[in-house]
Design brief:
Layout lengths: L11 H26 L4 H31 L12 H31 L15 E2 L3 E2 L9 H35 L15
Antiparallel strand pairs: 1-2
Length: 196
């Protein structure tokens, strides 16, 4: 398996980014939904929230590195067959949306947390600060205690998560169609060791 992408296959860095981020995003979505809707234990919620923030930071950094790798190594495998201009445009739009949401979701989460009254150290001493794995604290670009901004960023965060889920559902369905119906190499060349 080569380093760089070619017109025939994905290189191993692209595959590592793809599957690592897929696993992290899925885990963050599950944990975030659980925290927001099903968890009553305040202490566990604080602990999970800090873990959620930390891995959200990891996703943001990986998204930046992935975009940098894509810029350095712009070649992507060709679509099989002879896709129409509409199909090509749809694939490109979906990928642009996926990249955008990989930045919007962690950024809106960070801004939501920063603006939240729970981030006010006078009211809640340092328990809800934006810590990353307990190693360092993210800065607060917004003064804590703004309920209106908290609600705005909360809405952006959750709408973006639902949009990402919808696009990923189509993405997975398309990959499975290519594999089981079209019987081409689209899915195999993204799997570890897979190649065209």
């Amino acid at each position: 398996m080569g380093l760089k992408n070619t017109r025939a296959r994905w290189g191993w860095p692209a595959k590592v980014f793809h599957w690592t981020m897929a696993a992290l995003i899925l885990a963050l979505a599950v944990v975030g939904t659980y925290m927001a809707n099903f968890l009553d234990d305040m202490f566990l919620q604080i602990e999970l929230t800090q873990t959620h923030k930390s891995f959200g930071f990891v996703v943001f950094v990986l998204a930046g590195l992935r975009l940098l790798w894509r810029w350095i190594n712009p070649a992507v495998p060709d679509l099989p067959g002879a896709p129409s201009a509409i199909e090509r445009a749809g694939v490109k739009a979906a990928h642009v949306a996926l990249y955008a949401l990989m930045f919007v979701i962690p950024l809106s989460g960070w801004l939501m947390s920063s603006a939240s009254p729970l981030n006010d150290v006078d009211a809640y001493p340092a328990q809800m600060k934006n810590m990353v794995f307990g190693l360092f604290e993210m800065p607060d670009p917004i003064q804590p205690g703004d309920d209106r901004l908290t609600e705005i960023f909360h809405t952006v965060h959750w709408v973006s998560v639902y949009l990402l889920a919808a696009i990923l559902a189509v993405h997975v369905a398309a990959a499975l169609k290519h594999h089981f119906v079209d019987r081409d190499e689209v899915l195999r060349r993204m799997l570890p060791g897979g190649r065209k």
